[in-house]
Amino acid sequence: MFAYIDPGTGSMLFTVLLGIMGAAVYSIRVFIMKLRSRVGGGRAKKDAERVPFAVFSDNKRYFSVFEPVLRELSRRGERVLYIAGSRDDPAFSCGIEGLTAEYGGDGNKLFTRLNNLNADIVLSTTPGLEVYQWKRSPAVSWYVHIPHAASEICLYRMFGIDYYDAILLSGDYQAKDVRDLEKMRSLPEKELVMTGIPYMDEMRARLLSSPPAPEHPRTVLLAPSWGKSALFGVYGGKIIEDLLATGYHVIVRPHPQSFTSEKELMDDLMSKYPGSDRLEWNRDRDNFDVLNRSDILVSDFSGVIFDFTLVYDKPVVYTDPDFDTAPYDAWWLDRPIWTASALPRLGERLTEESEANMKELIDRCLTEPRYAEGRREVREETWANPGEGARLCADYLVEKYKKLTEKEES
What we know:
Layout: H1 7-39, H2 43-49, E1 51-57, H3 63-75, E2 80-84, E3 99-103, H4 108-115, E4 119-124, E5 140-145, E6 166-169, H5 172-184, E7 191-194, H6 198-209, E8 219-222, H7 231-235, H8 238-244, E9 249-252, H9 258-261, H10 263-272, E10 279-281, H11 288-292, E11 296-299, H12 304-311, E12 316-319, H13 330-333, H14 338-346, E13 347-350, H15 352-355, H16 358-367, H17 369-382, H18 389-409
Parallel strand pairs: 1-2, 1-4, 2-3, 4-5, 5-6, 6-7, 8-9, 8-11, 9-10, 11-12, 12-13
Helix pairs in contact: 3-18, 14-17
């Protein structure tokens, strides 16, 4: 007599079986690779196929995150393979010696390339390794994550950094979040390296070496993120009207994704509020000039807030939308995110009440001494080793490579 298995149990057993089969295939692939390496003559054969360092950038806008580190590695004579998710990534024209840039392809072709990558170390700012389509390659020894903003690590989608081997950090609060998540999920401890923020170091150096912004009328930069919870999603065109009513010069710089995902909204706003001597729309690829000549920023949860306040040392007016942490790692920590404590020290919160007095709100941000002190505090909390980020990142990568190869040879 055959035993009855209900559909739920059958589905569970099938999932377990698939997991066992997947683990077996993974183990076989690793064994075959090791066998090929030994039969082919060991390390000399491997060197012909393998790269010491690889970088994966899923979007061209993240090149600025990698560029300082790539230049430092190049200065040391290191070779790097750069896998780009964008056909027009600046890596293809940057001229960095020792850097080989390659377009990874569209969709599954990109993930197939990544999942079979042959490198000692992979550096990436993309979360979700081993969670979605991007899997750890059996031929990669070490995965390193570098954040692309001066803020929380826990604001990635759930499990975003769980399967990296190391994370390059810039603040103690980030390290605490990572360690707490590891304990909750019984994960092995990752290597946490307090390097700093290389791209902000570069911005600061560029600012210090440039002449002061020319004399200009008081200028407000409106730079929202995109989506329903962003400034335009909440306030629409009224936020532009409120800013124009202050009498100040207004620059509107929407998030690049808005022109794709919210094209109808952008077309409508640009039609209703055309450029004039008091209003300009900015879509420059390089945001240095527009940040440099603006006196105050109005934004929401865009990462530009930290660039503007910490590098350019200027205040911000920020929105405080209802932020649902449910899809993010922050939900597991069950405590206020660090950004919630940082923003009130950087400027004023925009509310329905304060929106009616926009000029007064802006003037207060520009004249209150406590915001200058707040920027200093926040800078110390989230920007470790200012000016040393690229060097410390390269130090870690080169030293880790040496240890990995020494262990392999022994």
